[in-house]
Amino acid sequence: MDAAGIYPPVFYSVLSVFVNSDVAFSVAVIRMANALLATALLTVVFWVLPRFARTPFVVSLAVTIVPLGLFILPSTNPSSWALLSAAIVWVTMWAAYLVRGRRQWALAALAVIGGVVGAGARADAAAFAVFAVLLAAVLGLRKLRASVLPLAASATVIAVSAVSYLGSGQSSAVISGLSNDRPPLTLAQHAQNLLDLPELWIGAVGASGLGWLDTSMPSLVWVITTVALGSAVVLSIRGMSGRRLCATLLAFAAIWIVPFVLLAQSNTTVGSQVQPRYILPLLIILAGVAAASVHAPHWWRGGRAYVTAAALAVAAAVALHTNVRRYTTGVDSWSVDPGAGAEWWWAAVLSPVVIWVVGSLSFAILLGIVAYIVTAESRTLAEEKIASFASDSDGADAPDTVSTFALSRRNAPDGI
Question: Is the peptide bond before 74 cis (omega within 30 degrees of 0)?
Answer without folding.
Answer: no
